[in-house]
Q: What sequence folds into this?
């Protein structure tokens, strides 16, 4: 089922990426939203481009940069798009390249298809539990060719990936110390935005611990792709997989990890 959406999604992010990079290379202005987060013309243009492409599927769309579909209208929707036109706007403003586009398709609360695109690196990773995970360069036609299928790397020493701005202290440090008690010394990688999920899917990172606020559109795409290669994204307290299209669109604190790796107590 999900294969039918992939050509449109890829075309959408290619067009959006082109406009994003035009603005990225310019002296753009930065606005501050009511929640004190930044937004730029690139966020807004990307959002409109993605919505225009997805509208033809007649599936409700939630985008970070648009008015949200009311709960009463979406609570019974079996399918829903979640999009983040630029995930990592702060990284975009810093011009460090660590931003991406996220698109996820949700079915009855579960992420069944995800796409993460890096305009700077010109790579698109997409996938879901029913099709596996693929990594393709921009402007490629044979998206589902086996040559693009992700081969997961095996690490001798587990690696933890964290957001570039996360402080390595408190509960996060306790979690890492607990993992070190199981696996020995652990490397820590820092990276912004959902690009962290690309490392997780490739297997160049094994754990992603998040004790900071995130929204559904931040990680749904990553979860769909990660589950395709044997990963999981779990509520930090219940250890249940995260679900989406909740009345409140905030995520609980979570940990993403390879299923075969345990967390101890």
A:
């Amino acid at each position: 089922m999900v294969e039918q959406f992939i050509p449109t999604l890829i075309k959408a992010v290619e067009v959006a990426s082109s406009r994003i990079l035009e603005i990225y290379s310019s002296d753009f202005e930065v606005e501050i939203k009511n929640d004190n987060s930044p937004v730029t013309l690139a966020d807004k243009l990307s959002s409109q481009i993605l919505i225009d492409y997805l509208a033809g599927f007649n599936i409700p769309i939630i985008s970070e940069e648009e008015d949200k579909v009311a709960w009463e209208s979406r609570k019974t929707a079996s399918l829903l798009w979640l999009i983040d036109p630029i995930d990592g706007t702060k990284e975009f403003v810093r011009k460090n390249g660590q931003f991406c586009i996220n698109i996820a398709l949700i079915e009855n609360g579960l992420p069944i298809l995800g796409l993460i695109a890096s305009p700077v690196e010109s790579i698109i990773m997409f996938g879901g539990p029913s099709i596996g995970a693929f990594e393709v360069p921009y402007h490629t036609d044979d998206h589902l060719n086996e040559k693009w299928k992700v081969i997961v790397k095996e690490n001798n020493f587990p690696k933890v990936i964290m957001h570039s701005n996360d402080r390595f202290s408190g509960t996060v440090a306790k979690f890492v110390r607990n993992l070190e008690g199981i696996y020995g010394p652990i490397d820590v990688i820092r990276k912004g935005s959902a690009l962290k999920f690309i490392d997780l899917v490739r297997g160049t990172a094994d754990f992603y611990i998040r004790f900071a606020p995130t929204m559904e559109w931040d990680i749904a795409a990553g979860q769909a792709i990660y589950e395709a290669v044997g990963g999981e994204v779990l509520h930090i307290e219940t250890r249940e997989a995260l679900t989406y299209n909740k009345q409140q669109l905030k995520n609980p604190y979570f940990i993403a990890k390879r299923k075969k790796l345990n967390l101890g107590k």
Remarks:
- The longest helix spans residues 6-24.
- The first strand starts at residue 31 and ends at 32.
- The chain has a mean pLDDT of 93.
